[in-house]
Write a structure and sequence with these properties.
Pfam families: LacI (PF00356), Peripla_BP_1 (PF00532). Keywords: DNA-binding, Transcription, Transcription regulation. This is Substrate-binding domain-containing protein. One of its GO terms (molecular function) is DNA-binding transcription factor activity. The protein is of the alpha/beta class. It has twelve helices and twelve strands. It has three domains: 44 residues, Orthogonal Bundle (434 Repressor (Amino-terminal Domain)); 129 residues, Response regulator (Rossmann fold, 3-Layer(aba) Sandwich), CATH 3.40.50.2300; 130 residues, Response regulator (Rossmann fold), CATH 3.40.50.2300. Helix 7 links the parallel strand 3 and strand 4. Helix 1 packs across helix 2, helix 5 packs across helix 12 and helix 8 packs parallel to helix 9. The protein is elongated and about 80 Å long. The relative contact order is 0.12. The model has no long low-confidence stretch (mean pLDDT 91).
Length: 336
């Protein structure tokens, strides 16, 4: 069925085109009854807005640029689903770029998004990004920017993250409550925001239960490091009775390394990951993990960016939005 135009709706309902246009935009100037009449007719006869004309009139592309470290990462795939869902409801399109954990590629993708006239940017910083000067200059030029997951304190922009501190605290507390006392923490590069937040939660739980923080039980790994066997070997010299991994990638590698060494899980050593991969239940043993609300992070980040683009000050929450995590306990840390 061919879609109709605003003029067609106005003619059929004996209204002015400006009244129909305002009703479709949910303007406060139009009565609820008129809005209902217009929206019902528009739905019945397959009205679709002319996005090109709308963009020219509003001087907007209605495009959001999204930069993630890696789409293959299930967490970021879920975040993108949330972003696209929220953007669709608000009439925006999404262009997705990958930095592949490279600062140089992040700069290239930023410029690509700008060249495509994106109205705003949603960014999760790469693992090698320590210089945010380009983003600062874009912010000074009034380009709307929202950071999610991996953020920077050097940028005064809205940020949407999971509660990394609370998630790591809950995981460490769970391990302590099951009798563990020497809990090793395997994490990612120290300068990344999520690393710092999860380490802080881990330390806070140790301190809450009177267990001293031992830096010999903490190891940092690079994102490109696929074999954590040497790291596990090194940590095993410290006689840990549990491992808290700052990502599921690290947790799965840790699980494989421990099983290769015939270390019983959880009888000898417990293991908890972070993010809650979809295959967690299929591992042997099933992996306990902190579940991050990836879909909600994406939705909230997109909503914040669109509010920023449209200058909806009444709904915009400047600063950080931290969405609660959930600890999912499975066989890798459950002692019976």
């Amino acid at each position: 069925m061919d879609s109709i135009t605003i003029k067609d709706i106005a003619r059929a309902l004996d209204l002015s085109t400006s009244t129909v246009s305002r009703a479709l935009r949910d303007s406060y100037e139009i009565s609820p009854e008129t809005k209902r009449l217009v929206l019902d007719y528009a739905k019945q006869f397959n009205y679709r807005p002319n996005q090109i004309a709308r963009s020219l009139k509003e001087n907007r592309s209605r495009i959001i640029g999204v930069i993630v470290p890696q789409i293959a990462n299930n967490f970021f795939s879920e975040v993108i689903n949330g972003i696209e869902a929220a953007a669709y409801l608000r009439g925006y399109y999404v262009f997705i770029f990958q930095s592949h954990e490279s600062y140089e590629r992040e700069l290239v993708t930023l410029r690509q998004a700008i060249d495509r006239k994106a109205d705003g940017l949603l960014i999760s910083l790469s693992s090698s990004t320590s210089d945010v000067s380009l983003l600062q200059s874009l912010q000074e030029k009034k380009l709307p920017i929202v950071l999610f997951d991996r953020v920077s304190a050097e940028l005064d922009v809205p940020c949407v993250t999971s509660d990394n501190f609370g998630g790591a605290f809950a995981a460490t507390e769970h391990l302590i409550e099951t009798g563990r006392r020497r809990i090793a923490h395997i994490t990612i590069p120290s300068y990344i925001s999520i690393t710092q937040e999860r380490l802080a939660g881990y330390r806070a739980a140790l301190e809450r239960y009177g267990l001293g923080y031992d830096e010999n039980l903490v190891r940092y790994t690079d994102f490109g490091q696929t074999d954590v066997g040497p790291v596990i070997n090194d940590l095993l010299t410290q006689a840990p009775d549990a491992f808290l991994a700052a990502s599921d990638r690290l947790a799965i590698s840790c699980l494989a390394a421990l099983k290769k060494r015939n270390i019983a899980i959880p009888e000898t050593v417990s293991l908890v990951g972070f993010t809650n991969t979809p295959v967690a239940d299929l591992l042997d043993p099933a992996l306990s993990a902190v579940e991050q609300p990836a879909l909600e992070i994406g939705r909230m980040a997109a909503q914040q960016l669109i509010d920023l683009i449209e200058m909806k000050a009444d709904t915009l929450r400047v600063g950080r939005i931290s969405i609660p995590t959930r600890l999912v306990v499975r066989a890798s840390s459950r002692l019976t």
